[in-house]
Amino acid sequence: MAPGSRYPIPAQTHRVEEEIKRSRFITTLGYTPTVEAARDFIAQVSAEFADASHNCWAYVVGPPGSTAQVGMSDAGEPHGTAGRPMLTVLLHSGVGDVTAVVTRYFGGTLLGKGGLVKAYSGGVQLALASLPTVEKVPTVTLQVVLDYAAVTPVKRLLPAYEAEILDEGYAAQVTYRLKVPEEQASPLVQALTELTHGQAEVDVLG
Q: What is the largest CA-CA distance in the chain?
C-alpha cells in the first residue's frame, strides 16, 4: 500500500461470543494504532477475563496485510493453535490497526489441535464479519502564509483537496494552519503556488 493510503480500521471495540463443545470463546476486537496500544488492549481484556483458561491474542499495527508490526500469542494453548491462525485471519481481513483477543473458558471437552485452530480463527472471522469500521485517513498539517488578496481564492480552493482550516492568524499577512489528507498535500501545495504565483509560503508541520 502506498504511504498515505486510506484503509478501514475498527470503529469501536467489538465483541462476539460462541460456544464450541461446552467451551466458551469470547472474541474482542479493538482499534490499536500503535504496538503500545495493542499491548494495553490485550492487558485490558486479559484483566477483564482474568479467570479464563486462556486469553490468546494477535495484532496487526499498520495498513491491512502489512507484517511490519505484528504480534501473537498462544497464551498456553498448544503451540500454533491460536495466535498464528488468529494473525492469519487478521492479515487477510482487509482491516488495519486491529488487535484480537480470544478468551476461552474451558468446558471440559478437548477440541484437539485442528479443533482449536478452527475455534480461534473462527472466532476472529465471526467478530470481523460484524465489525463496524471507519476509514483511516492519514493527514498532514500545513502552514500557509499568504497575502490578503489571495484569501478568497485560497478558501475556494481548499474543499477540492479536503483541506480543513485548523486556525487562522491575521497580521501583515494571513497565516493558516491546515489539516489535509497526506495524499492531497503535494497537489494542494502545487495548486497554492500556482494560484498565488509562487507568493504563498507553505511549510509542512507534520
A: 77
